[in-house]
Amino acid sequence: MSEKVPCLYCQTENTIEQDVGGRSAPTQVCHHCGMALPKAHPSSRRYKTKVFLWAFVFITLFCFIMVIYLPR
Questions:
Q1: Which among 43, 51, 52, 70 counts the fewest CB atoms within 10 Å?
Q2: What are phi and psi of 62, to 5 degrees?
């Protein structure tokens, strides 16, 4: 499985190859500038999904608590 991630330094798209376990290889470098790519990139689909899931859970819990707590 592969994912395209932009480099933090030169903003070129790089393809990150992942193994079956979902982990990327530890020595991923940019093909254009040669700098190391981060393990958790802010533009990656996995990071955005994780952030959305946690935000959704906390907003749902807050709304549920407010429905119970606030007087009717």
A1: 70
A2: -60, -45
Report the distance separating Cα 50 and Cα 70, nearest Å: 30
| Percent above pLDDT 90 for the chain | 24
Residue from 66, 51, 7 nearest 31 by CA: 7
* DSSP annotation string for 4-58: EEE-TTT--EEEEEB-TTSPBPTT-B-TTT-PBPPSS-TTSHHHHHHHHHHHHHH
Is residue 2 classed as helix, strand or coil in its secondary structure?
Answer: strand
Q: How many CB atoms lie within 10 A of CB 64?
A: 10
pLDDT per position as a tens digit, 29-62:
888 898 888 777 676 677 788 889 999 999 999 9
